[in-house]
Amino acid sequence: MVKKYKLILFIILLVSFVLRFYKLNDNPPGLYIDEVAIGQNAYEILKTGKDEHGYVMPLFFKSFGDYKMPVYIYSTSLSMSIFGKNEFAVRFPSALFGVLTVLLIYLIVKKILLLDDEFSKDRIEKIALLSAFLMGISSWHIHFSRGGFETNQALFLFLLAVFLSISYFKNKKIIYLVFSTLLFTLSIYTYHSYRIISPLFFLGLVFIFLYKDKLRRKNLAASLILFSILFLPILIFSFSGEGSARFSATSVFSELGELSAPQKVVQYPFAVIKNYLSYFSFYYIFATGDGIGRHQIPEFGLLFRWQLPFLLIGLYSLLRSNNNILKLLVISLIIIAPIPASLAVPSPHSLRSLLMVFPMTILVAVGLVYFFDNLKRFKIYLVPVLMIVSIFEFIFYSHYYYVHYPQVNPKDWGAGYKEIVVNTERLRNAYDHVIIDKNYLNFAPIYFKFYSTNKVPEMVDASWSKPKGWGDEKVLYIRPFYGPTSSPDMIFEVFLDKKNNKDVISQFWKL
Amino acid sequence: MKTKIIIILIFLFQLIPLKAWTACKNFFDFYHFSLYDLELQLIYAINHDQDLPVLLARTFHNKLLQFFIDIYKRYVHFLDPQLLITMLTFVGVFGVLASVWYFLNSKKKNKLILVLILICFILPLGNVIFNFQLPFIFKLLIIALPFNLLSIFGHFNFLNSKNKKAAIFVYVILIALSIYWLVMVPDQAVKYCEMP
């Protein structure tokens, strides 16, 4: 690779690194419950080899009954062995794999384009570097790289498997096929969506390879058998009571209620089609995202607004192109990525469909190159305009991310729970009992387990009153602030309430 | 001749969903720009910039910038696939996409098609900004009809493509999907418009 391209790639990776690691502890503001659960389970595994429920090195983590996939949790254990038990360690694997995904998109695009003679090496480098740059500054990808999201690691593992598959296609070395197969299955054990995406994609690849390379059928058959064996445990688990609990809770079909068999045949496909179409809404992609506070920044969609025309140009350009491999990869991923997410609610859902960021980024890159190639005469005017618009939008996004987002969405990130733990630990020794009102604070126990080494306080309901047997024993009673409004939104307060025979201190904690 | 009859039938089929829209009074407020709404958005946004210098707050939150963001948001909301399918059916949306494709790929650009494409994408933008004060039936016709007319070009070219059997197969699937959609949500239009 020419030195200047190496330097550009290095700068892109450096920028990606900063965007994903800068103030990782503080923004997003606080660990949300799944991050805390991952962190706590990871810590337990590191220290005892058992999860929080006492299972030894489990394949599926019971957690809140949602049975989390294991790979990210074990990755976090590794991270905690280096960084300790803190927010940074929980988020580190996601951020690291986020940066590596930027490198990966460069490698994949370059490898695919080199298989063809359509472009010169110089042009290939430009498209690959542009794809990497766009992924590096992608608001969608940055956001999910900065939280402890399993889907981000799954995305990396899946794309690495794709890269190795393409390498096998080119070099025919069995080692690539083996590792590709292993990584496809590893992605399945990282995030739920890949239970559908990886098998579909892997089977598609196997058929293509069989068609293109009949001589190596034995290798492909062996990889298929290996994949099937590794996939079996999760397949069995998916149909078990525990495994299907998560699907039942989020399934689009559960919303339709009790239906007869003919009604199911008619209504189920419609529900899925409707959800599927929602993933191609420009409003969702470019304007507001999925509306879930934890998933995107207010006033921003998944991609930047200026990218819309280039996405369409890129799609047109790719469909016309002779590069069948890139065409097949991008189109197939765009079609497959929303399928598992369409089976669940709410839809659209930017976390479950994160895989779409990969083909969309490539389309924007291709669109940019095609646009400027066809408008060479106006390039001198258009490039500065585009640069100003894109830089301003990125700065605008950064402003929203670092100034507005921590103020607007702290509740989505469990903000306040850490303060409850820290202040409780500060006051605990002065009291004989510590109890928590589980109304609106029902996730407090996991936060206590993560942030404190002391016994988790007892959870009680709102009707609790001090038992007579406790006599003059002092009680630290933690409850949300009910106050003049019924919404305990922003303030968690412990207060004095002698009237109901509670003897507590008054403490006012603001989020 | 056969192709022309098929296209006429497809065009008439595409007009079926418009009946559900005739019950509407207007598109929801969300599809129209409002200065009052814009001001409220700015007040909300500026609230979070209390600790920042005024110049910086105003750089990011001003009426001009917010106007473009707001218009963009409302316009792309209008170009939602489900809204277009509700207005044109799957067949109609396919026809529009095919028209754009064939137009871009043709060596000699048909000016009428270019004008139709521009009308299709500019009229909704005009409605977002100005909220045309017309009886809704006229508003619907001036927005939906150009799309339907544009789709004819796409259908014509697609039906005249080399693999006619594949083309017919595609249309059978699209018509089946369209009928399925119309049966499942005959009143889907209420999701996008106010009723009297």
Key descriptive features of the protein:
heterodimer, A: 511 residues, 5-stranded mixed beta sheet, disordered C terminus, B: 196 residues, mainly alpha, two-stranded antiparallel ribbon, 9 helices
Report what the structure shows.
The complex is a heterodimer of chains A (511) and B (196). Chain A has 511 residues and is mainly alpha-helical. The model of chain A is unreliable at 484-492 and 494-511 (pLDDT under 50). In chain A, helix 20 links the parallel strand 1 (433-437) and strand 2. The radius of gyration of chain A is 25 Å and the shape is globular. Chain A has 20 helices and five strands. The longest helix of chain B is centred in the middle third of the chain and has 25 residues, at 81-105. Chain B is elongated. In chain B, helix 1 packs antiparallel against helix 6, helix 5 crosses helix 7 and helix 6 (81-105) packs antiparallel against helix 9. Chain B has a two-stranded antiparallel sheet with strand order 1-2. Helix content of chain B is 73%, strand content 2%. Chain B has helices at residues 2-15, 18-21, 35-47, 54-60, 63-78, 81-105, 111-130, 136-159, 164-184; strands spanning 26-27, 193-194. Chain B is an all-alpha fold. Classes of the chains: A mainly alpha (511), B mainly alpha (196). The interface between A and B is medium-sized, with 27 and 23 residues.
